[in-house]
Amino acid sequence: MPTTPPLEGRVPLQMTAPRRGKPPRHFADLSADERRAAVVELGEKPFRAKQLATHYFTHLTADPASMTDLPQATRDTLVEGLFPPLMEAARVMQADGGTTVKTLWHLFDGAKVESVLMRYKHRTTLCVSSQAGCGMACPFCATGQLGLTRNLSTAEIVEQVRRAGRSLADGDVPGGPTRLNNLVFMGMGEPLANYKAVMATVRTLVAPPPEGLGMSARNVTVSTVGLVPAMRKLADEGIPVTLALSLHAPDDKLRSELVPINTRWSVDEALDAARHYFEVTGRRVSIEYALIRDMNDHAWRADLLGEKLNARGRGWVHVNPIPLNPTPGSIWTASDPAVEEEFVARLRAHGIPTTVRDTRGSDIDGACGQLAAEEE
């Protein structure tokens, strides 16, 4: 049996509460009823809330100059009171002929997050961050090495989406004006560790216009490293998003080193929770598996993964092997192509649907957290 090289410079799991830089109240933080109440607080009629929602969620703007259906004084009052600036683009990098756009955002309190917008031939996908930094301490992950700064607010997550949608609508990404189709919570942070804000964001994403962005829940993916209680809670939300479990190893010994939260909830517990999600929602679960050279890419581990997945039934899961996007100076690197091919072949031999993830932006520090780490 192949041996696994030792890990170096492992960061201890950081489960302490994040530093709180509480963002100001923003329109996107509020429910429809709360928006009406907030508008009344500012001395305006309740129906103005729906007008604001139409501008923000349908026209994707918070610019008072574009709100021509509101009186000048009214729009200035409402925008000043309900649309405080939360983030600004500090750095924008492009790859793949401009169809991959990575943005480093500076938040209102100086915290840093990243989002990545990817345009493909027949779809567009935005990868958003849910936390500034991350407390899960996975040693091969750039964000994990930053530690956790704080959770993002609902509005800080929604703003990443709105700005990407506006950019696509304006035709800033090559290919002409278009819409945002898919949203994945696979940027900086552990989404289920910021459960309340992430779920409020999901509800805003799927709410019909003008109260939300009108996206299909099936086009929203929530990723987790395996916070089992939150996975089970997500199954009961009644919103059929796609659940993606970042597994990265099928055996507890290695996974506890690669994904330290595994010392709290084991591989089997995480897979049981993933199977439970499928049983409740009917939505096939994605298993994310970053292939790391000479670490977790052995053929016997592919066999073990296939056996564990099939032990929980057929047709409930899909595996996405991901060639590791290495960070500068890291000991971690992507698997040899022949090893990757054998890993995939072993999984498919077990009847597991397997698709190698298309990796983009390696020439612009595509792995989330790399730009923020450079600034730090």
Describe this structure in words.
With 376 residues, this protein is of the alpha/beta class. The chain has 2 domains: 27-82, Orthogonal Bundle (DNA polymerase, domain 1); 87-375, Aldolase class I (TIM Barrel, Alpha-Beta Barrel), CATH 3.20.20.70. It is 32% helix and 17% strand. It has helices at 32-41, 48-58, 72-82, 154-169, 195-206, 228-235, 252-258, 267-281, 299-310, 337-349, 370-375, and strands spanning 87-95, 100-107, 112-119, 124-127, 131-133, 148-151, 182-185, 220-224, 242-246, 285-291, 317-323. The strands form 2 sheets. It has a 9-stranded mixed β-sheet, covered by helices on one side. α4 runs parallel beside α5. Residues 1-19 have low confidence and may be disordered.
Q: Give me the CATH architecture of the largest domain, please.
A: Alpha-Beta Barrel
Rg result: 21 Å
The geometry reads as elongated
Bin the strand percentage: 15-25%
Counting DSSP H or I runs of 4 or more residues, the number of helices is 11
* Sequence of secondary-structure elements: HHHEEEEEEHEHEHEHHEHEHH
CATH topology of the largest domain: TIM Barrel
Model regions low in confidence, pLDDT < 50 over at least 5 residues? 1-19
Structural class by sheet pairing and helices = alpha/beta
**Fourth CATH level, the homologous superfamily of the largest domain:** Aldolase class I
What is the average of the pLDDT values? 91
> What is the CA-CA span between the terminal residues?
40 Å
For the largest beta-sheet, the strand count, sense and barrel status come to:
9 strands, mixed
CATH class of the largest domain: Alpha Beta
Helix content: 25-40%
Domain module count:
2
Organism: Luteimicrobium subarcticum
Cofactor: [4Fe-4S] cluster
Active site: 114, 368
Domain Radical SAM core: 120-363
